[in-house]
Structure formats: C-alpha cells, structure tokens
Amino acid sequence: LLPLLSAPEVTRFMSPPPPSVERLVAFVETTHRERSAGRYAGFAIVPHETGRPVGLVQVRQLEPGFATAEWGVAIGSAWWGRGLFDEAGRLLLSFAFDTLGVHRLEARVAAQNGRAMAAVAKLGGVEEGLLRRALLTPDGNRVDQVLWAWLADEWRARMTRQEEEELWVH
User: Fold this and answer.
1) Which helix (H) or strand (E) holds 164?
2) Which segments of 37-133 does DSSP mark as H helices, in order?
3) Would you say residue 1 has pLDDT above 90?
4) pTM given for the model
5) DSSP for residue 148
6) Distance between CA 86 and CA 82 in Å, rounded?
7) pLDDT per residue over 19-43, tens digit each?
8) Cβ proximity of 24 and 18 under 8 Å
C-alpha cells in the first residue's frame, strides 16, 4: 500500500503520506486509537479481484459525535478510472450518514485536481467555496482547495430517487 500511495502522481494533490513503513505502522496505530475513541474511521479499498488494498478511505469527526465530519480518499494510480472512487465514496457516504449519524460531511479537493473534482460532483457533493492556498503539497507548494459538502437529508433523498428510478422497467 505504501508504494501505491507514495507515487508522485498520487501525492501531488494531497498531504504527504507516511514516508516509511515504520511511519505507516504508526499511522495505523494512531487510527486504531482514534477509532476506539470514536473520532475516526478508516478503511482499506480492496478490489474483489485482488484481495489486496489499493487505497484508503477515511472519515474523521470535526465536531463531537460526528455531527460534522470530513472524509478523504487515496487510491493508487493503477486503479484510477475503474470506478473504485465512486463505489468507495458511495459506501462511505452511506456509512457516515446511516451508521455514524453524520449531519454534514465535508471534503477538500485540490482545485487543480480535475478528476477528483468531477468524482465528488458525480457523488452529489455541493461546491461551497474556495480555500485559497490551503494545501501544502509534498513539493512544498501551496495550492487552492475547493470545499465540498453533503448533507444527510439531501443524500438520503438522492438515494431514494435513484432506487425509485431503478424500479422502473423500460
């Protein structure tokens, strides 16, 4: 997983990943503690055909009790364009709203990252604002991020509409 998430094409629009296996282990240990404390949930993205992790999806509370939370996704570039982001995103949105009880879920996406911008829009995110030079990239540059958000009631209404559309026989 570390080589996949450390590739320059993956890291150019995100916070730097752990620089070594030891630091990745420490990150995993921290995520376990945060999960036990009820402040974080993280999952590996494991395609059915491989049985091996190719990415991560995570959600962390911004407000006590997960009323407002933030999520993020990182996937190895060899797996881009295969629908994993969409599938993992739908699962995470449903988990956040239906299991954690999140009211508002946010994501921050580098403004230059066209693929991610299109992917979060496809998942029904609402573009709310520009965070100027908010992300420090691994090469030391600061880039703009776009703040996206989903609300629980809007997500549930969207899922209900999609289910109803699927029931029609054409």
Assistant:
1) helix 152-167
2) 84-94, 114-122
3) no
4) 0.89
5) E
6) 9
7) 888 988 898 899 999 999 999 999 9
8) yes
